[in-house]
Specification:
Elements (H helix, E strand, L loop, with lengths): L8 H12 L5 H13 L1 H22 L4 H31 L1
Helix pairs in contact: 1-3, 2-3
Length: 97
């Protein structure tokens, strides 16, 4: 990526996203690092990406409390039983016709 005055739609749209996910070759990554040193817009965009990436990683590590898991599974069983009962009633009504 060549350095240029920023309005940087290309750097923000493609290169920064790839850089954030470590998907650039070392030369392109170095170009982005050098560019961010002189471009506050891209530097801020990169910081936002890092914070978002960290937040997603943190949430993915968390697990629901056991009691919540038990309640959700119980609710799903009730819903499934209701659907099964409804289907059986529909099948019975169709057979009676």
């Amino acid at each position: 990526m060549t350095q240029r005055p920023c309005g940087c739609p290309e750097a923000r749209a493609r290169q920064l996203e790839d850089y954030l996910h470590n998907e650039l070759c070392s030369e392109d990554a170095e170009d982005i690092r050098a560019h961010m040193e002189i471009c506050p817009e891209c530097r801020d965009e990169h910081k936002v990406g890092l914070v978002l990436q960290q937040a997603v990683a943190r949430v993915c590590r968390e697990t629901a409390p056991e009691q919540l898991r038990v309640q959700v599974l119980a609710s799903l069983r009730v819903i499934q039983a209701g659907h099964a009962t409804s289907r059986a009633a529909d099948a019975s009504a169709s057979a009676d016709r």
